[in-house]
Amino acid sequence: MKAQWQKSSYSNGTHEGSNCVELAALAMGVGVRDSKDRDGGHVTLDRASFAALLARIRSGTLDLP
């Protein structure tokens, strides 16, 4: 079965060079990829790790470069 990738709802395509991600439910967890480089591969996180990542992003405790 082919993965059904979905672009972030925050990605509206109006900002040139904006950082966008796509997600897909995969057998091993959640796939995350760059929407501007769809052929560049993806990272797969188990569902617990993905939930923890979202919690840190929402709380503002994730330090990003």
SSE topology:
Elements: E1 6-7, E2 21-26, E3 29-34, E4 43-45, H1 47-59
Antiparallel strand pairs: 1-2, 2-3, 3-4
Protein name: DUF397 domain-containing protein
InterPro entries: DUF397
Organism: Actinomadura montaniterrae
Would you give an account of this structure?
- With 65 residues, the protein is an alpha+beta fold.
- It has a domain at 21-65.
- The protein is 20% helix and 26% strand.
- The chain has one helix and four strands.
- A four-stranded antiparallel sheet has the order 1-2-3-4.
- Strand 2 and strand 3 (29-34) form a beta hairpin.
- The protein is globular.
- It starts with 5 loop residues before the first strand and ends in a 6-residue tail after the last helix.
- The relative contact order is 0.17.
- The mean pLDDT is 86.
- This is DUF397 domain-containing protein.
